[in-house]
Amino acid sequence: TAEMPGLYAEGDYDVAGFAVGAVERSQILPRMSEIGAGDVLVGLGSSGVHSNGFSLVRKVVAHAGLGFHSRCPWEQQGRSVGEALLTPTRIYVKPLLPLIHQRVIKGMAHITGGGFTDNIPRVLPKSVGADIDAEAWELPEVFKWVKRAGGVAAEEMARTFNCGIGMVLVVAPEHVRTVVDALNGSGEQAYVIGGLTAFGGEQGEERVVVRNTGKW
């Protein structure tokens, strides 16, 4: 796991772990040859910051004059800032595996460091871009507070945080209803958040466009 700047003093050390998985070659994602303009992006709701972007979050907390034991300003439950920020990351393996086995998902992008901007292109062919509609879901309160308290631009939010979407799936139009219904039925929050577009790679052309961030 990444070392966090400012958390390790001289003489401290950390322990890193890893997991190894096995997959049949025919089941490997993304299926790049099948992904193209016209495919749909389905987003899965996150549980919070998801252990990512904390260097910026810590700066915003300090800038706001708060500590991690301070009462959380974006919640009503009375939790501390630290407790709210340490909400466990949502893991999507169990609800996604049946859909993967049905071959109705072409690709999956885990929205971690780099937000939408850096993570979604990892599962796309070079000739394909993504168009995302930020009005398709509600920005969680923690991100509204970070944006407001830190004066963070919407573009910076979209390339730093998950902004409420922890996983993005690439799905053919004819399979969208199946995927969304199955995920919502398993307790997830699934949203159709946009689609794939042709990408020419022209100078100044954005490969991932996040529209309608005005309400953020």
Quick overview:
With 216 residues, the protein is α+β, with helices and mostly antiparallel strands. It has helices spanning 54-63, 81-85, 93-101, 115-119, 141-150, 154-158, 176-185; strands at residues 40-45, 107-110, 128-133, 165-171, 190-198, 208-211.
Describe how the helices and strands are arranged.
Elements: E1 40-45, H1 54-63, H2 81-85, H3 93-101, E2 107-110, H4 115-119, E3 128-133, H5 141-150, H6 154-158, E4 165-171, H7 176-185, E5 190-198, E6 208-211
Parallel strand pairs: 3-6
Antiparallel strand pairs: 1-4, 1-5, 2-4, 3-5
Verbal overview:
- The chain is an alpha+beta fold.
- It has helices at residues 54-63, 81-85, 93-101, 115-119, 141-150, 154-158, 176-185; strands at residues 40-45, 107-110, 128-133, 165-171, 190-198, 208-211.
- Strands 2-4-1-5-3-6 form a six-stranded mixed beta sheet.
- The two termini are 30 Å apart.
- The model has no long low-confidence stretch (mean pLDDT 93).
